[in-house]
Specification:
This protein is 25% helix and 14% strand. The chain has helices at 23-26, 70-73, 83-97, 102-116, 126-143, 159-163, 192-202, 278-286; strands at residues 13-14, 17-18, 207-212, 227-234, 237-244, 249-253, 260-261, 264-265, 271-273, 296-303. The strands form three sheets. It has a six-stranded antiparallel β-sheet, sandwiched between helices. It has a two-stranded antiparallel ribbon with strand order 1-2. Helix 3 (83-97) packs antiparallel against helix 4 (102-116). The longest helix has 18 residues, at 126-143. It is globular, with a radius of gyration of 21 Å.
């Protein structure tokens, strides 16, 4: 596989930079955060340009019409509803019966998450919930306060360091899951998420895989009081995004060479999303026009508030320039 230092889609880790567990330890000529163009090229997610105005919280808080009777759509003959499902209906009615409020919308999302956590598999209520999920995504986009990029993140941090809230700068610019715990480089994609869990256990912190190797929709809610991280991957790499649980919006950092990103742009620098809500995240991980077919959704991971310490390989020293 040829080495390359250019790409259309930046960020994450690879044998060629941040997007893979080989990273700079194996490929010292790579540039951190640049994925290989030789694999077909990747769409890139670019930071909002300097001076660009972030979208502010809407001055009005519209409620999109629900469009269907949720209680009737979820009713099934001879199948009574559990207390947990009734809690969803109660939270929905409370939200619809009050002036649109973010706290009430989050309460509805939590009720859905708690009910889903009790289900080992598919449920006869899933079709109705799928319709409710579509409406919820619209409400989140309408009501959520839009974020400003967090300060303090720089060339010491890559996507994994940022997703884990690790600012300590201990080679975080080339951090990979599992390295702090002493794990060898993963040899298959299914091991990437486990590296996060191992790093957490190594330092006595909490991290939980909420879903892996399954369709990305619907986006889950944290079940342990932490925050949500999404990971995409390919055979030799990964990329992390993290969600702000107060706003429900996603941000990420495309390698050490990029700032924190709150919006999404195409390779021609056209703005595609001015903020990354759950619906935008799902478009990214399911639309081949936004992400090369080699990349796909891997896992949702909940991380304990405060994050984790991460570790990466030291950057190769530049050779001295002879005088």
């Amino acid at each position: 596989m040829p080495r390359s230092t250019t790409s259309r889609w930046r960020g994450g880790a690879s044998l060629f930079g941040e997007r893979g567990l080989g990273s700079m330890e194996s490929w010292p000529m790579a540039i951190d955060g640049i994925a290989p163009a030789g694999l077909g090229g990747y769409k890139r997610i670019l930071a909002q340009p300097p001076g660009g105005a972030l979208r502010s919280e809407p001055s009005t808080m519209p409620i999109h019409p629900l469009g269907f009777d949720f209680e009737k759509a979820s009713a099934k003959a001879f199948h009574g509803k559990s207390a947990g499902f009734r809690a969803i209906e109660t939270a929905l009615q409370h939200y619809l019966g009050q002036p649109a409020a973010w706290v009430n919308l989050k309460a509805l999302q939590r009720a859905i998450a708690e009910w889903r956590a009790t289900k080992a598999g598919a449920s006869i209520r899933d079709p109705a919930l799928a319709r409710l999920d579509v409406w919820l995504q619209q409400e989140v986009a309408a009501l959520a306060p839009w974020p400003a990029p967090e300060p303090g993140w720089d060339a010491r941090h890559n996507c994994y360091a940022y997703a884990m809230h690790c600012k300590v700068g201990v080679d975080g610019n080339n951090a990979r899951p599992g390295r702090l715990a002493g794990r060898p480089r993963a040899t298959k994609e299914s091991d990437f998420a486990q590296g996060v869990i191992d790093d957490a256990r190594h330092q006595g912190r909490g991290a939980w895989i909420l879903r892996q190797a399954a369709p990305p929709a619907p986006v889950p809610q944290p079940l342990h009081g932490g925050y949500l991280v999404a990971m995409t991957s390919m055979p030799h790499g990964y990329h992390f995004l993290r969600r702000d649980e107060a706003t429900g919006l996603w941000t990420h950092k495309n390698g050490s060479i990029r700032p924190v990103e709150t919006s999404w742009r195409d390779p021609d620098d056209h703005l595609l999303e001015d903020a990354i809500d759950d619906a935008a995240l799902l478009r990214l991980v399911t639309d081949s026009r936004l992400m090369d077919s080699l990349w796909h959704f891997d896992a949702y991971i909940e991380v304990q508030n405060g994050g984790l310490t991460v570790s990466g390989a030291p950057l190769p020293k530049k050779p001295a320039i002879p005088e």
